[in-house]
Amino acid sequence: MLNVGVIGAGHLGKIHLRLLNQSEHYNLIGFYDSNPEYAQKISQEFGYTVFNSIEELIAQTDVIDIVTPTLSHFETAKKVIEAGKHVFIEKPITNTVEEAEDLVKLAKKHQVKGQVGHVERFNPAFQAVSHMIDEPMFIEAHRLAEFNPRGTDVPVVLDLMIHDIDAILSVVKSDVKKINASGVSVISETPDICNARIKFENGCVANLTASRISLKQMRKARFFQRDAYISVDFLEKNCEVVKMKEAPENPGDFDMILQNAEGIKKQIYFDNPDVEENNAILDELETFAVAINNNTTPKVTLEQGTKALQVAKQVIESFSN
């Protein structure tokens, strides 16, 4: 088992602490939080060992899980990596692309592994269909949330849209060519709603919408590719796969047949995979442990986290263009 410590015991940090404490891959050593009184309260309530400094916690562990506000990610991760310990960092990886690139270099220099907490990669609905997504040419994603003051210190792009950016980058095997976006601040000092159109070098276009001032929640993505349509509901954890193939000469009574203007007939059929229930946060943490133990590549690398941040920053920059 890997000795692990958590830095940051806020809303998400408490979830990480609970899951790491029950994981068979980790031995939870304890945690550090910048608020001493709050840290003592969490320690007394749940029985986790609280450390008085980040350095003391790092010294006792093999892996550090960083669940702090984004602004502190870089300095915290730098301490962890320079101590030769593996690091898991909640998304976004850092506040700036330059900081993220520095972490990538540091991790290579000190030969440690890092993973970024893009949890939607581990969503069971996305996992069920991701291998079926093959050269999509149009993608549409909607991520809508009710207003919550937590997270409004950053634009909605870094708060919500980055989830879909990372998921899309994981299946579109092409570089970004052009980004057009618009964002509006309604309640916060930073944009609360955003729409972005991302065009890739291979011709694929992704249209993303994110809002944190909606009256209902929605987390859906649709992928259109040659002879297939794939829908993923990240919130409800279900998916739908509609495929087309050459129509049989003698279709059955219940076969769905389409005919285009040229007279070509296609049969529509459903190929919905089973969606296996899981705890996505536990899965992302445990796959990182497996990568460390087996010396394999983490599921969401520091480089991939950097790329998602880079595209997110390009979206934000395009607001003023």
Layout of secondary structure:
Blueprint: E1 2-7, H1 11-22, E2 26-32, H2 36-46, H3 54-59, E3 63-66, H4 73-82, E4 86-90, H5 97-110, E5 114-117, H6 124-129, E6 138-144, H7 156-171, E7 176-184, E8 193-200, E9 205-211, E10 218-225, E11 228-233, E12 238-246, E13 256-259, E14 265-270, H8 280-294, H9 302-317
Parallel strand pairs: 1-2, 1-3, 3-4, 4-5, 6-9
Antiparallel strand pairs: 6-10, 7-8, 8-9, 10-11, 11-12, 12-14, 13-14
Summarize the structure in words.
- Pfam families: GFO_IDH_MocA (PF01408), GFO_IDH_MocA_C3 (PF22725).
- The protein has 321 residues and is α/β, with parallel strands linked by helices.
- The chain folds into two domains: 140 residues, Rossmann fold (3-Layer(aba) Sandwich), CATH 3.40.50; 168 residues, 2-Layer Sandwich (Dihydrodipicolinate Reductase, domain 2), CATH 3.30.360.
- The protein contains nine helices and 14 strands.
- The strands form two sheets. The protein has a nine-stranded mixed beta sheet with strand order 7-8-9-6-10-11-12-14-13. Strands 2-1-3-4-5 form a five-stranded parallel beta sheet, with helices on both faces.
- A hairpin with an 8-residue loop joins strand 7 and strand 8.
- Helix 5 packs antiparallel against helix 9 and helix 7 crosses helix 9.
- It is globular, with a radius of gyration of 22 Å.
- The chain starts with a strand and ends with a helix.
